[in-house]
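Morning run. Coffee first, then this:
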Amino acid sequence: MHNDDIVGFGCAIRNNNGDWQRGCAGTIQVSSVLEGKLFAIYKSLLLAWEADFKEVYCETDCHEAYVLLKDFNIPLCSQKSVLISRIQNIILWPWRVELNLIQRTANRVVDAMAKHTITHRVHYAKWLSPWKDLRELINLDVATS
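And here it is:
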């Protein structure tokens, strides 16, 4: 997932059955993996809002990001605090967002998307349907979650 200080991220929006709805992925320059995970959550929520979804279950495999976002009372004093504040504000928009912590093995799709962006030097891209290699991973993720 790392290439110097460039991190790949992936976001997959799926319906209740696990069927792909849309996704995005890209690369960003960050100071930590946590910052990359937070950015992925941020972009996921914006993508879901843009698609007019009103009930969202946002999943992350990053325990630290999950804890930081669930507790609105944690004092924040870092570069990440701006991103955390933005995400917490988005969660308060007029929709229902539930943040869930999942196992890394149930997050293969976004990991593959993140690696794809690093390998193919993709700055940012959106997809309405998954590319061929992701379809099998989607089925594995659904079976694991």
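The longest strand covers residues 20-29. Good start to the day.
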